[in-house]
Amino acid sequence: MGLLQRQPPLGPVLLLILLSVLSCLGPSLSLDLIPYTPRVTAWDLEGKVTATTFSLEQPRCVLDGHAGAGDTVWLVVALSNASRGFQNPQTLAEIPASPQLLTDSYYMTLPLSLDQLPCEDPAGDSGGVPLLRVGNDHGCHQPLYCNAPLPSPGPYRVKFLVMDTRGPPKAQTRWSDHITLHQGKAPGSIDTWPGRRSGAMIVITSVLSSLAGLLLLAFLAASTVRFSSLWWPEEAPEQLRIGSFMGKRYMTHHIPPTEAATLPVGCEPGLDPLPSLSP
Fold first, then answer.
1. Does residue 186 contact residue 211 with C-beta atoms inside 8 Å?
2. 130: pLDDT strictly greater than 80
3. Model confidence pLDDT, tens digit, residues 234-245
4. DSSP string covering 197-216, please?
5. Which of 27, 86, 195, 250 is deepest in the core (most CB within 10 A)?
6. What percentage of the chain reaches a pLDDT higher than 90?
7. Does the structure show a pLDDT above 50 at 1?
8. Phi, psi angles (nearest 5°) of residue 40
9. What CA–CA distance (Å, rounded) separates 231 from 121?
10. Which residues of 48-78 are buried (b: 16+ CB within 10 A; e: fewer)?
11. Which BP terms from GO are recorded (predicted)?
């Protein structure tokens, strides 16, 4: 009867597998999880979410105790479907730049120090609204960590990552909720054919057009009456209108000759009166 081949015990094998898994997950498990969720700023601002940018509130009074004076706070931007698969870089050379958003669906940008995120009341801050505008660098002033405009509506998710001066990460926040950018409508897709409008809209448009026409006619009539009264005043109907000139017409009235009063003979003016017949 041949010797049976002895199997190694399962305990050491499982222990080796567990250690290998822990060695791979060690850097992630050793990170401090900061109980903070990034979000779009709550300030009532126009354009806080556009077609290529969105504005986050600054993580003030959040990273104290998790970051030192020499540490760097990074913003990780990822497409929502790629956020779960993102692996934190272990060195500065592994930090993904903005072009990798098109290939890997994530990148890191906006490196900040702790003194750039002071723990003061935003209302008393003279620097304006405390926010971080993602996608605002159209000129890419930092090519390596460019904050370039976002190329698509997303949705996106972001988190803050604290990295040591030597590179390894020390702490991270939670991932944000889904952030979707505004998507403009293509000019060619806008329907301008009135045949597809509702009946009520057509009636309203017709009524408004008729009212506009009536108002225009009333204005023209009022203007005509006004200017005609200036050219031909009513108080002088006898005036003659010749072209653009006016002249008064003078009527000569016939004055019949006055008949001379008949006087007795000898009573003509300048003659001596008749002698008295009385004795």
1. no
2. yes
3. 554 544 444 544
4. S-HHHHHHHHHHHHHHHHHH
5. 86
6. 32
7. no
8. -65, 140
9. 73
10. bebebbbbbbbbeebbeebbeeebbbbbbbb
11. negative regulation of gene expression
CA-wise closest residue to 162 among 233, 107, 236, 108: 108
Which helix (H) or strand (E) segment holds residue 222: the answer is: helix 199-231
| 169-173/32-34 β-pairing | parallel
The CA-atom distances, in angstroms, between 185 and each of 46, 47, 136, 188, 189 are: 19, 17, 22, 8, 7
CA dihedral 162, 164, 169, 171 (to 10 degrees): -40
Location of structure tokens 């060195």: 91
For residue 236, what are its two tokens? 């002088």
105: pLDDT strictly greater than 70: yes
Are residues 175 and 158 in contact, defined by beta-carbon separation less than 8 angstroms? yes
The two tokens of residue 259 are 């008949």
Sheet holding 32-34, edge to edge: 32-34, 169-173, 156-163, 72-79, 106-112
- Specify the amino acid at residue 33: L
